[in-house]
């Protein structure tokens, strides 16, 4: 019976398409941070239900000190996010050495590339997410 089930599962297209991959997954490496605002990580959250002010998105910035800056945003464009970075992080706390984000189009945009290079901030990106490999 075990052989029959094993054979059937190997032939089943649905079972094979959702089967977890047998690849070895790399180890997670802890992020080493020595000083506050050496590395600032941020991400775009939303869309949330529209607030009374018309905001639907939020940017979060945090790292070593566990300090968070939650900023309500009207939209998720690169220019809006760049302004939030300037007003909520850089103008209040100074420039971080590195800025960690995912590879969303807002964070990889030319607007943020120009802003970070002008300010001397190194952009660092997380690994891309592959939903097919996560099954």
From TrEMBL:
Lineage summary:
Eukaryota, Viridiplantae, Streptophyta, Embryophyta, Tracheophyta
Q: What is this protein called?
A: Integrase catalytic domain-containing protein
Please report the stretch or stretches of sequence annotated as the Integrase catalytic domain. Answer: 32-135
Q: Which PANTHER family does this chain map to?
A: INTEGRASE CATALYTIC DOMAIN-CONTAINING PROTEIN, PROTEIN CBG26694
Xref: PROSITE patterns: INTEGRASE
Instruction: Cite a single GO MF annotation.
Output: nucleic acid binding
Please give the biological process terms from Gene Ontology that the record holds: DNA integration
Matching SUPFAM superfamilies? Ribonuclease H-like
């Amino acid at each position: 019976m075990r052989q029959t089930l094993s054979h059937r599962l190997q032939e089943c297209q649905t079972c094979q398409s959702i089967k977890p991959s047998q690849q070895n997954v790399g180890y997670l490496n802890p992020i080493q941070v020595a000083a506050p605002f050496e590395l600032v990580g941020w991400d775009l959250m939303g869309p949330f239900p529209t607030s009374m002010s018309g905001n639907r998105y939020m940017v979060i910035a945090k790292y070593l000190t566990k300090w968070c800056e939650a900023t309500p945003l009207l939209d998720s464009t690169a220019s809006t996010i760049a302004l939030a970075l300037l007003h909520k992080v850089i103008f209040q706390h100074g420039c971080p050495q590195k800025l960690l984000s995912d590879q969303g189009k807002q964070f990889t945009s030319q607007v943020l590339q120009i802003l970070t290079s002008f300010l001397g901030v190194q952009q660092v990106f997380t690994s891309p997410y592959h939903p097919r490999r996560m099954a």
